[in-house]
Design goal:
alpha/beta, 2 domains, six-stranded mixed beta sheet, binds adenosine-5'-triphosphate
């Protein structure tokens, strides 16, 4: 499915937080959202996920306004993992991941073997099968992040929207999670701070600054020394890695 924001604007009170942003992601592709703290990435993520309505502009899923989708109808297509996803205490990892199946079930439909298989597959993918009975409130930050991703995967979405999915993860789990998302080959939007990971895993990158879209395109066109200096105020050296052929960004400190 194609997900697109068309000149979306969102305000908190009178303050413009997302200012006329247009971005789109083609089926199976990954769009990275980068930008300094407070540039509007999470706010745009919420608009794209349909968690908030734009004051102006539209979010479209295959050319249909997401405001026209019913709650469950949208949740069967779009899964979102927010930065600080919380859940009720006294629930286990398995309980949280099972919640992902909710949009696919009606009050009358019983839990099926197929639901079990999907939940199991999600736990396997994030490497948490041995934690299924652990209580949520006892998990580390990185483990919670992986559980929330498993919950999103159990939703069997065609569009996955992730707000900084790697920020609590050690380097191995950062790479594992982004590889997992890459292998899913579904339409993905990911807000991410690590420019090297963005260069490696995103098909296109949108740069936000003060709520506005600065530029959008393939990593090789977007992640330039000039853009990094202009938007992030940091001097960087950008080269092509001899090891993986993608961009390698070194910050000159
Ligand atoms: N509900 C709100 N009320 C007031 N201000 C808000 C609200 N939501 C967001 N903002 C402000 O909007 C700006 C953008 O916030 P947002 O969380 O979208 O940025 P971000 O790019 O995701 O930041 P970070 O990289 O720090 O996570 C920030 O200055 C934030 O304080």
């Amino acid at each position: 499915m194609t997900l697109a924001a068309n000149a979306v604007r969102w305000l908190a009170g009178r303050k413009v937080i997302v200012d006329g942003v247009s971005v789109s992601v083609k089926p199976g592709q990954t769009l990275g959202l980068i930008g300094p703290n407070g540039s509007g990435k999470s706010s745009l993520i919420r608009l794209l996920a349909g968690l908030r309505a734009p004051a102006e502009g539209d979010v479209l899923l295959d050319n249909r306004k997401i405001s026209g989708f019913g709650r469950w109808e949208l949740a069967r297509r779009v899964a979102v993992v927010e930065q600080h996803s919380m859940t009720e205490a006294n629930v286990t990892v398995l309980d949280v991941v099972k919640l992902g199946r909710t949009p696919h079930r009606s009050a009358l439909s019983p839990w099926t073997d197929a639901d079990d298989d999907i939940v199991e597959d999600a736990l396997v993918r994030v490497g948490l099968t041995d934690r299924r009975d652990q209580f949520w409130h006892t998990l580390s930050g990185g483990e919670r992040q992986r559980v929330q991703l498993a919950r999103a995967l159990a939703q069997s979405p065609v569009v996955l929207i992730l707000d900084e999915p790697t920020n609590h993860l050690d380097i191995q789990h950062q790479i594992d999670i982004l590889r997992l998302v890459e292998d899913l080959s579904i339409t993905t939007v990911v807000a991410i701070h690590d420019l090297n990971l963005a260069a490696r895993f995103c098909d296109r990158i949108a740069v936000l600054s003060e709520g506005k879209l600065v530029t959008c395109g393939p990593p090789t066109e977007i992640l330039t020394e000039k853009m990094i200096a202009d938007v992030f105020g940091v001097e960087a050296h950008v080269s092509t890695s001899a090891h993986h052929g993608r961009l390698h960004i070194q910050f000159l400190m």
